[in-house]
Amino acid sequence: MLKILVFVGIVFIVLSGMKCYVYLRFLRFNPFIPKYMSIGFLVILAIGEVALLLLRDAPIARWQYLLVGSCVVFSYTLFMACLCVDIVRFCFKRISPKDSFIQSRRAFGAKMTSWALALLFSLFSFKAFHNALNLPPVKKLFLRVKNLHSKISIAMISDVHIGNTLGKAFLEGIVEKINALNVDIVVIVGDLVDAKIAFVKADLAPLKDLQSKLGVYYVAGNHEYYHGIEPILEHLQSLNLHIVHNTSIEFESFNLAGVSDLAGYRFGKLEPDLEAAKAALNPNKPSILLAHQPKFVYQNDVSDFDVVLCGHTHGGQVFPLSLLVWLDQHYVHGLYHIPNAKHTQLYVSSGVGFWGPAIRFLAPSEIVYLELA
């Protein structure tokens, strides 16, 4: 609990610092916009951010949630634009001679600064929304696994967060992309659902159309616990998803195991049990483990597994929050080799969707195509 409070405190301090910086710098960089208009714009963003917190679980339309959440997006992109302009101005001052000609161009420089801020703000905002709301690309990854006698192709997704913003149309696109890969097996590594199941049943219907030779396998993430883990699991099973919580399945050439999420400890139900997941592993075959949070790997001995697949981090979702994610999870995104398990390879996906406002910045989403050989 103390660690969570410290993490939340750090996030609060960072976000508060960003807010103060934006307010001060935005007013300075806009000499050609009336001050009352600048202040009014910033006040609207602040009201929207507060409203997002209050309406987080309210049954409002998706476009309304997207509109309110855009205030957070604009606050962030404005911060990044101000920061970039400040860095360029600082470097320019360091390398430019302080002669009378340079000094006489201050008015021109102020105008260019204002235009640069507007351009960067527009560009960053477009990229943030585009990266979040568009279908992710397929990232291909090839792993060597000992004692694997035939190749295995896996489609992996995590962190879809079907709920306030993303719905049926988005999931249909994901399913279409996965089916085009013609893989042996599909795995979903948590945070598929981010709302009460009653509100998103129709949105999850495309999952029935997922195609693979060996089926679709799923472990829950922390957000499923937040919205009622039992009814969510019950409905997902009706969509032909195989739940692999604290158990394993033996296939012809490999074992697949899964553990429920660390949030189970907090909620006192469906807690992760690695020993139970390992109990029926065939030691003569390579083993794959599904676990939502990568810090589960940091906290437990996973040396019995050749490949571990995780999500949860969103690749940070927005920079520089990726640094805070690293502090909490110890892994952010990509392929890792576990220090005390030399043959174990860990892949942490940046996920498919997003949490909260529709933003991804310097943390692109992905559908992962894994080929094990």
UniProtKB/TrEMBL annotation:
Q: Does the keyword Translocase apply?
A: no
Q: From which residue to which does any coiled coil extend?
A: none
CDD domains in the record = MPP_YkuE_C
Which GO MF terms are attached to this record? hydrolase activity
Q: Where is the Calcineurin-like phosphoesterase domain?
A: 153-315
Q: Which domain of life is it from?
A: Bacteria
Q: Which UniProt keywords apply?
A: Membrane, Transmembrane, Transmembrane helix
**Entries under InterPro entries matching the protein:** Calcineurin-like_PHP (IPR004843), Metallo-depent_PP-like (IPR029052), Metallophosphoesterase_sf (IPR051158)
Q: Which Pfam families match?
A: Metallophos (PF00149)
Locate the transmembrane regions by residue number: 6-24, 36-55, 67-92, 112-130
From the Swiss-Prot or TrEMBL record, give the protein name: Metallophosphoesterase
What is the protein's species of origin? Helicobacter marmotae
